Amino acid sequence: MKKILGLTASPRKLGNCEIMIKEISRQIPEPHELQLIRLPELDIQPCKGCYRCLFKEEECVLNDDFDMVLKSMIEADALILSVPAYFLGANASLKRFLDRGLSFYAHIDKLWGKPAVAAGIAGIKGKEGYTLLCIDSFLKLVLADNKYSRIIYGALPGEIFFNDKNKKIASDMAASLFGTRLKKTDPRCPLCGGDTFRFLEGNRVRCMLCSNEGVINIVNKKSVFEIDRGVHELFLTKKDAVEHKKWLQGMKIRFIKEKKRLKEISLPYRKL
Ligand SMILES: Cc1cc2nc3c(=O)[nH]c(=O)nc-3n(C[C@H](O)[C@H](O)[C@H](O)COP(=O)(O)O)c2cc1C
Questions:
Q1: pLDDT value, residue 167
Q2: What's the number of domains the chain is made of?
């Protein structure tokens, strides 16, 4: 029997996020058990930025619910994520958990490529802001294989299923989780599938998901992005993730080397 982890970032029990996860689970053809974790209910403390989880025991020094969620992620065969839009972005419980993500690098082999689908739920059409970017970034940084993610709309708890199309979306997501990836037809980054860009000089752009740069051109009235791989890749491949871990670990040597110079800069601010 497969294990599926449903992660919701909504504080509302039986709200849209929770019923979306349960509807997707209901429609998954493979036999499975669903574990539901509500992130806002948990004690997830802010990352201290101590980097200790990258060295020696490779465990976080904080004693809270983070390890329980990480263990569930590691043990799951797949993830369903559902996140409400709060003030144009994802509910903060998602970021609070993600900020502890240096701990993921100890488990690259077990986390890499876990199939995942995700729904962002916003109350007002077009007012989701950067919620989908938060979701796609989350799935990228937990090293999952994002099979399909999208925004759906509904404000009142349960309202998403006033619209039958959202049941169909749940069923498509359910089929894609262990099946074929769902195609997205709107313009996106050809390297990572991201759909959010920063506009730079001229027609240059940077993808906000994989951080790579390139150009946008309008061809036959359609936006076409050409994006080049950068030197410091953010996880287009498992090798990139391993390289990034090594790069982060290398920061310790750099820190020791630069410690005196850094102290000279920061010490004069101590008494202020
Ligand atoms: C504090 C707060 C902020 C919200 N901000 C937005 C927003 O910026 N854009 C939007 O479309 N909906 C916003 N909403 C509406 C929720 O995204 C919407 O009600 C969603 O269905 C909640 O999902 P849930 O039922 O799983 O909690 C907000 C709701 C709350 C409570």
A1: 97
A2: 1
Which ligand 1 atom is nearest residue 88's CA?
A: 8
Q: Which atom of ligand 1 is nearest to the CA of 19?
A: 26
Structural domain includes residue 118: yes
Ligand 1 probe mutation, 10, 16, 134, most atoms within 8 A of CB:
16
Evaluate: CB of 122 within 6 angstroms of ligand 1: yes
Q: Is 157 in the pocket of ligand 1 (CB under 6 A)?
A: yes
Residue 247's pLDDT is 93
pLDDT < 70: residue spans in the chain: none
Tell me, in angstroms, the distance from the centre of ligand 1 to residue 196's CA.
21
Report the CATH number that the domain containing residue 12 is assigned in CATH: 3.40.50.360
The pLDDT value given to residue 134: 98
Asked, for residue 12, whether it belongs to a domain, the answer is: yes
Residue 29 belongs to domain spanning = 1-183
Domain contains 23: yes
Q: What is the pLDDT of residues 68-85, one digit of tens each?
A: 999 999 999 999 999 999
Q: What per-residue confidence (pLDDT) applies to 61?
A: 93
Q: What is the pLDDT of residue 238?
A: 92
**CB of residue 156 inside a 6 A radius of ligand 1:** no
Query: Domain for residue 205, yes or no?
Result: no
Residue 184 CA to residue 66 CA, distance in Å, equals 33
